[in-house]
Amino acid sequence: xxxxxxxxxxxxxxxxxxxxxxxxxxxxxxxxxxxxxxxxxxxxxxxxxxxxxxxxxxxxxxxxxxxxxxxxxxxxxxxxxxxxxxxxxxxxxxxxxxxxxxxxxxxxxxxxxxxxxxxxxxxxxxxxxxxxxxxxxxxxxxxxxxxxxxxxxxxxxxxxxxxxxxxxxxxxxxxxxxxxxxxxxxxxxxxxxxxxxxxxxxxxxxxxxxxxxxxxxxxxxxxxxxxxxxxxxxxxxxxxxxxxxxxxxxxxxxxxxxxxxxxxxxxxxxxxxxxxxxxxxxxxxxxxxxxxxxxxxxxxxxxxxxxxxxxxxxxxxxxxxxxxxxxxxxxxxxxx
Length: 336
Hints:
Blueprint: E1 15-20, H1 24-36, E2 40-45, H2 69-72, E3 82-86, H3 91-100, E4 106-110, E5 122-126, E6 136-139, H4 148-158, E7 169-174, H5 185-202, E8 205-210, H6 216-225, E9 231-233, H7 242-248, E10 251-255, H8 259-266, E11 272-275, H9 284-295, E12 299-301, H10 316-328
Parallel strand pairs: 1-2, 1-3, 3-4, 4-5, 5-6, 7-8, 7-10, 8-9, 10-11, 11-12
Helix pairs in contact: 1-10, 4-7, 5-6
């Protein structure tokens, strides 16, 4: 595991409660940052009770933990040194833990909290959220769990099982629809056709994973289009090969509906090309993110052909971990 140069030795590691709603898109960034900072992690998935599940955390009065019985049973003393939360539903409980600890527990949140930022010790916020302040660390994309060490270990583990695929090997990460982008059977068919043509023209081997958000009809269309090509598609059963695919990849192709997926792909240091999905809603934040990643040379659009270039992979997670370690060591960079 890669660790920040400021991280304390294991015997002195601060205790960190990682608070999320249990969704992978929130769990992975929080765990990734806590791991990189070398904290002693307790992962807690919180479920909100009514009426707090409907109310923005900025409207919660002091004294309200706001969680169901199962979650409340885990949010008890001794209080941690820091809570690291990600996702709107974890904000209220994190702030209440800080209050109940008498302010001893420091509060770090990933993403824009949509409330007064001075209630937090540190915020880790991507630049497309357009937030700044003395206690805000701005990243280009999302923080994550991908490190070169993890990728190399996964590559060794999966090398034998994927040895039948020809080079170059391309990891293909397929997401799904959201409020910004359309992803239906027609979009899946177009993506599948482009990937199939690429595989046949270049002789590449494809290592493809679908997201839980991938519409079934789109997944079927992609599978059908890739029939007869050198493609390994994970069926969602058994061990997840995601890190193995990224570790073995000479290149990565990823759909642009997920900041997390694109950020993780860029961390491989391999050329990353992004499949831009049809816009159907408010995509401003996504489009700002993609523009920023292209300016940094971390990604390029995928138009059906492969492009070659060199770039320095962004390491926002390390920079955020350094800021978190500085906060925990009271080195003067804390916003407290």
